DNA sequence: TATGAATGAGCTTTCATTCAT
DNA sequence: TATGAATGAAAGCTCATTCAT
C-alpha cells in the first residue's frame, strides 16, 4: 500500500467502514455490535478502522452525519423537479409509502436511527447533531408550507411550523409502528397522507 | 429481614429495585447502566437484587410490565367516570397535554420505553411483550371509536382501527419530538387534539 | 421447635443433611454443588444446615468420615461370619461384583469419593483423613493375608503388604474403569478375582 | 507481535498457556484454579489467553488432547524400536516404574487427569473425549497381546481384551495410590509387572 | 433451633483501544 | 498505511456465609 494515498481512496475506505457499521448496528444495535463485527463484515482490519475513526462513537456520529447529508441531497434533488407545495408534500409522503416496512435492512436502519435519538438524551454532542438534523427537516417542511400559502395552495390561517411538526410527528410515529409486523403500515400512511393534504389545502 | 418476610415486604423491595433501575436506565440507557449503578442508587446489595430478579433483562422486562399495568389501571379507572367516546379521547389527549415535556424523569422514562421498542427488534421475548402492550392500547382506542360510532358521536364511515392507529402514531411522534427541548410540545398537541376530534366527530 | 433437643434428634438431622449432600455432590461434583442444592434436596433451611455444619467443607469431611465408618462396620460385621482368609477375600471381591456398575447413584458416589482423594492433594486435613482411611483398608487386607499365611491357606513367601496393595489397586482401577459404560466390569472383576486367588493360594 | 505472526509463534503461545494452566490446575484443581492464576503464572494477559482459548473449559480440553497426543506419539515412537510383545509390555511397565511418584509436577498432572475423568461423568463432550482416549490405549494393549499370541509369546487361551483391561486397571490403581506419599510405588509396580508377565507368558 | 434475606468478594468473559511490526 | 496480537478495565452473575428475627 502506498505511503501517500489520495483523498478519494480515503473517502472510499471510510464509506466501506460506514456501510459495514450500519449493517452491524442495524443487526445488533449500537452497543451490542462490536468492532470485530465490523471487521468481519467489512474485511478491513481493526487497526485500519482505527486509522480512519478514532472510536466507535466516532463511527456512529459519522454514520448519522453522512446519512443525513445523503437524505437531504436526495430530497433537494427530487424537489428541483417539483414546483407546487402540494406536489412536494405528496412526494415526501410517497417516499415513505414506497417502502417495504418489514424489509430487514430498513428496520435495522430505523432502529439505529431512533436509538441514536434516545442515546442523544445522554450525550450533548450527539444531541446537538440530532437537533440540527431535526431543525433541517422541520425548516424544509415549513418552507414548503409557507411557499404553498403564498401560492394559495395551502390555507393561509394555519401555522406553518405547527403543521411542519405535525408532518414529522406522523412520520416518526408511523416509523415506530412499523416495528410491529402486523401494523397496516401502507393503509395508515395512505390515510394520513389524504387527511393531511385535505386539512391543509386552501 | 428473615425469617419469612411478608409478600408485601417483597413487593416493596422489588418496587425499590425497579424505581432505581428506571432512574439508572433513564440516565444512561439500558445497556450502559450497570447493576452496580442500581446498587449505588438503591442501596440494595448486588446479591439481594439477584435474589429478586434473575438477570438485568429480567428487571428490564418487569419494569415494562409493571409500568404497563399501572398505566392501564389508571386509564381504566379514569374511564369509569367518563361515558361518551369523545370525552374519553379528550381525556387521553389531555393526559399527555398535562405533562411537563422537559421533566427529567418523564424524559428518562420515555427514552427507556422507546429504547425498549427498538431493542425488541432483536429479542423475541421482549418483542412479544411490546407487541402485546401495543395491541392492548390499540384495542382500547378502537373500542372507544366503535362505541362513539354506535352512539352517533363519531362518523360511521371511518375505519376504527385506522383511526386508533392514527391516535397512537401521533402520541408516539409527539413523544419522540419531546426529546428536543425547543419543541412546541403543548401547542402541537393541542392542535393535534383539535384536528383529530374535528376529523372524527359525526 | 424445642430449645433443647436430644442428641438423637441432632444425629438424625445431620444424617439427613449428609444424605442430601451426597446426592448433590454425586450429581454435580463437590465444587459445582451448592448449599442451595442441598437445601432443595433436603428441605432443610440454609440457616439450619449451618447450625449443624460450619462450612461446606465440613459437610464434605463428615461425609467421608461417616461413610468410611459405615463401610468398615459393614465389613467387620460380615467378617465375623467368615473364618478363612480366602473366604474373606472372596467376600470382598464379591462385594464389588454384586454391584451394578452403571447404577447412577453408585457412579455418583464413586466420583465423589475419588474426587475427594485428588482434592486431598491440596488440603492437608483432608489428606490426613484419606490417608487414614487408606491405611485402615490396607491393614484390613494385610491382616487377612497374614492370617491366611499362618493358617497355611496363603503362600508364605509373598509380601502381605504388597499383596494388600495389589488388592486395593485393582479395586481402584476397576472403579475408575466403571465410569465407562462399555467396560466389561463383571467379566474383568471375575477374572481379577480368579487370578488373584490363584496367585496367593498356598 | 503483529502483524501476521507465524503459526509456530501461535503454537508456542498456546503451549505456554497450557503449561501454566496445567501447573495451576495441578495445584488447585480445575474448578478452584482461576484464569487470574494462569495469568499470574504465565505472565500472559487475560485478554490474550482468551484470544487463544475461548473458555476455561476449552483450555482444559486442549490440555487433555495435547497430552494424549504427546503420550501416544511417544509410545508409538518407542514401540517402533521394539518387536516382541513382551518387550513392549515390559517397556510400558518400565515407563511407569521410571518415574518419581512424588514428583510434584507428575502428581499434579495425575490429579488433573483423573479429576478430568470424574468430571466427565457430568459433561458429555468431555466424556466422549476421555472415552476415546481410553479406547485408544485399550486397543494398543489388546493389539500387543494378540500379536504376542500369534508369535507364541503369550498364552493363546487368554482373552486379549480382558488382559488389556487388567493392564490399565493396574496402572490406574497404582496412579491413584501414588497420591499417598507412603505407598511403596516402585515395589508394588515391580511386583505387578512380574506377576502380569508370568501370567500371560506362553 | 429454625429461617431465608442480605451480603460482597470473587468468578469468567468481553471488547474498545493500543502499538510493535 | 495496514495488521492483528496484546491489554486490562469493567461487566454480569454466583454462592458460601452471616444474622436479625
What would you say this structure looks like, in words?
Four copies of one chain form a homotetramer. With 202 residues, chain A is an all-alpha fold. Chain A has two domains: 1-66, Homeodomain-like (Arc Repressor Mutant, subunit A), CATH 1.10.10; 84-202, Tetracycline Repressor, domain 2 (Orthogonal Bundle), CATH 1.10.357. In chain A, 75% of the residues lie in helices and 0% in strands. Chain A contains nine helices and no strands. The first copy, chain A, has helices at 7-28, 35-42, 46-52, 56-79, 85-97, 104-119, 124-150, 160-177, 185-200. Chain A is elongated and about 60 Å long. The mean pLDDT of chain A is 92. At the A-B interface, α6, α7, α8 and α9 of A face α6, α8 and α9 of B. Chain B binds a DNA duplex (21 and 21 nucleotides) through α1 and α3.
Amino acid at each position: 500500500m502506498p505511503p501517500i494515498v489520495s483523498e478519494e481512496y480515503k473517502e472510499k475506505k471510510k464509506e466501506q467502514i460506514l456501510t459495514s457499521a450500519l449493517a452491524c448496528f442495524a443487526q445488533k444495535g449500537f452497543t451490542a455490535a462490536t468492532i470485530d463485527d465490523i471487521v468481519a463484515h467489512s474485511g478491513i482490519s481493526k487497526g485500519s478502522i482505527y486509522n480512519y475513526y478514532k472510536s466507535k462513537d466516532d463511527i456512529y456520529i459519522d454514520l448519522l452525519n453522512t446519512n443525513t447529508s445523503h437524505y437531504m441531497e436526495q430530497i433537494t434533488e427530487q424537489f428541483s423537479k417539483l414546483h407546487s407545495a402540494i406536489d412536494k408534500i405528496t412526494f415526501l409522503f410517497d417516499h415513505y409509502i414506497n417502502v417495504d416496512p418489514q424489509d430487514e435492512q430498513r428496520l435495522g436502519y430505523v432502529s439505529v436511527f431512533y436509538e441514536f435519538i434516545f442515546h442523544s438524551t445522554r450525550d450533548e454532542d450527539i444531541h446537538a447533531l440530532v437537533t440540527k438534523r431535526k431543525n433541517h427537516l422541520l425548516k424544509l417542511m415549513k418552507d414548503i408550507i409557507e411557499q404553498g400559502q403564498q401560492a394559495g395552495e395551502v390555507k393561509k390561517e394555519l401555522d406553518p411550523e405547527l403543521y411542519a411538526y405535525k408532518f414529522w410527528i406522523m412520520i416518526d410515529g408511523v416509523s415506530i409502528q412499523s416495528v410491529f409486523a402486523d401494523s397496516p403500515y401502507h393503509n395508515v400512511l395512505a390515510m394520513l397522507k389524504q387527511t393531511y393534504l385535505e386539512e391543509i389545502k386552501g
